[in-house]
Amino acid sequence: MDPLLALSLVLALIVASTALGLLWRARQGRVRAAGGAEVVRATDVGSSVAFGDLATLLQFSTELCARCPGTRRLLGQAADARPGVTHVDIDLTHRADLAARYNILQTPTTLILDGSGRVRARVGGAPHRAEIARQLDALDAPAVPAAENTPFTSPVRSRNVHAQ
């Protein structure tokens, strides 16, 4: 093979793989709105914990997921900071049925559910704190008047639970 052609092929592969890697990285943690047609119940995912009155941050993880512990902490803090919001972590390591049912292609994947269990948003990869807060604000806005949304609200009534 001609050395110039071989070098050109190597450079083309490097450029293509770099472009694909940058595209993949840009899509990680992005919140995608869901139509709200799908309803999830705690019993559907094997959780013994009731979902939140306002919202549920439903995280799908696996044992070998490197980003799942950080996501668990972030979502737990978000739930603990808001009354009526619950964080539930479902381990998919031995639950391929749930991965197929909810189309989980990577971990962590987070579904943001409203108070009735409807899927309002989906996050593939590690979520961004600001995006989670924005989604929870959107769910909270119609239910809580602006005057009640102060730093001096009632004590936190959320739960942070790890379900197996």
Automatic annotation (TrEMBL):
Family annotation (CDD domains): TRX_family
Pfam family, one: Thioredoxin
InterPro entries hit by this protein: Thioredoxin-like_sf (IPR036249), Thioredoxin_domain (IPR013766)
Superkingdom classification of source: Bacteria
Domain Thioredoxin positions: 53-137
Name listed for the protein in its UniProt record: Thioredoxin
